[in-house]
Amino acid sequence: MYRNEHEVGSSILAFLDSEKNTRSLRRDDIFFTSKLASNSSYATARKSIKQSVKQSGLGYIDLFLLHSPYGGRQARFDSWKAVEDAIDEGDVKAGGVSNFGFKHLQELLNSQPRVKPAVNQIEVHPFNTRTEITSFCQQHDIVVQAYAPLARALRMTHLVITSLSDKYACSPAQLMIRWSLQHGLVPLPKSKTKSRIIANGEVSGFDIGPEDMNRLDQLDEYLVTDWDPVDTD
Fold this sequence. Notes:
- The chain has helices spanning 5-16, 42-56, 73-88, 102-110, 131-139, 159-167, 172-182, 194-200, 210-217, and strands spanning 33-36, 61-66, 92-98, 119-123, 143-147, 186-188.
- The chain is of the alpha/beta class and 233 residues long.
- It has a six-stranded parallel beta sheet.
- Helix 6 crosses helix 7 (172-182).
- The radius of gyration is 19 Å and the shape is globular.
């Protein structure tokens, strides 16, 4: 999908075989995710999955996602069947979707797939809560991975964010990550700065109170920071 599977896989294997691996981690301690770039025919999707596994050099992919609902109903079904067969054949451990809206998820579940999607990876943060989608996923045991959980830093100076960050003695980023976790989401913050990566993981020392969670929920303005295919046909 991002044309970096070989580089990422090689880096993982090099680390596992290096002196830096002080905890004696093994391949099965690493969780590797990749995606199908676009939905099309079954054969194209299955070939793409096999190529991803080969490029990574890791033997299998822990989680493989359909990147979007684009391509139409039949292409989604055919691509998902390719994921199911990849799971059956050991190329993939778990399958999921990304940027799927309520109707796409309902459509897939109504088709009675052999394997239900384990994950829906979508943009979610206090300024775009996507309550309908997240509630549906949680009702059907589909994990919501929230990408752009910091709203790409577009609202870090919002008065509610800064005031609650002061109240809980945390950074705005930590506040927004904690909000995601308390909603049962799996936030996927990213940074190229080591100190921020570390800080983004240090969010277990406080809980946001119910009233303040509600204040954050009320910030929803349907802010889309990248793309928004959840309503496509």
